[in-house]
Amino acid sequence: MYSMKFSILTLFPAMFESLLSESILKRAQENKHIEFELYDIRDFTTDKHRRVDHPPYGGGAGMLLACQPLFDCIEAVKKKAKKSHAVVFFTPQGKRLEQIDVEKFSEKYDEYILVCGHYEGIDQRVRDSLVDYEVSIGDFVLTGGELAAAVFSDAVSRLVPGVLGKQESFERESFSEILGRKREYPQYTRPENFRGMIVPEVLLSGHHQKILDWQNNKLT
Ligand code: 6GU
């Protein structure tokens, strides 16, 4: 039934609540096209004070997410994961995510185990032995990987069959998003006159060919 699962490993699972309980992603979960499972990395620490971070060996700024909670959490999730899965770690040093990557990810695996880093990063041994892909969402620095994991799962989800409604899928195809460029023309809805700003007359004309020509002309 489900065609894609996202298992999200984070210290802040509440950050995903609103994202997953609204609009298209909500509907897609209800319709069992996509599935999300959240894991609190802190639940996997064996430390009696529930610590998950330590200062880096050799010195340096900040704290690192330590091996033990991350290894135990990732291994537990991998054990119950679908046959075809990949572990993705979000870091500004990762490969910048582009639509072509999103398309490939949407087809390559049935489950993504998304690891959200925090603090100054994670112990290198996690990256060396458990991470399959390192992904960045752009040339800027976030406070943690959560927003990047949200971007990744949103972008991949909308390419999963059934997630977009009929109209939304049609728009995706007809706006040739698939061909690369996401070209768009200006669009208007009611009312015709808003505070003196009026809708271009041709759009109200009913001349289908003229409308198509106008839209083509205005493509960005
Ligand atoms: Cl994946 N993580 C963080 N912390 N910052 C970022 C990013 C990821 N992508 C762009 N900036």
General description of the model:
By secondary structure, the chain is of the alpha/beta class. It folds into 2 domains: 154 residues, SPOUT methyltransferase, trefoil knot domain (Alpha/beta knot, 3-Layer(aba) Sandwich); 36 residues, Orthogonal Bundle (Trp Operon Repressor, Chain A), CATH 1.10.1270.20. It contains 8 helices and 9 strands. The longest helix is centred in the N-terminal third of the chain and has 13 residues. The chain starts with a strand and ends with a helix. The mean pLDDT is 94. Bound molecules: 6-chloroguanine (6GU). The site of 6-chloroguanine (6GU) has 14 residues, from strand 5 and strand 7.
List keywords for this structure.
220 residues; binds 6-chloroguanine; Trp Operon Repressor, Chain A; two-stranded antiparallel sheet; Alpha/beta knot; 8 helices; elongated; five-stranded parallel β-sheet; alpha/beta
Which helices and strands occur, and which strands form pairs?
Blueprint: E1 4-10, H1 17-20, H2 23-30, E2 34-40, E3 53-54, E4 64-65, H3 67-79, E5 85-96, H4 99-108, E6 111-116, H5 124-130, E7 133-136, H6 146-157, H7 166-174, E8 193-194, E9 197-198, H8 208-217
Parallel strand pairs: 1-2, 1-6, 5-6, 5-7
Antiparallel strand pairs: 3-4, 8-9
Bound molecules: 6-chloroguanine.
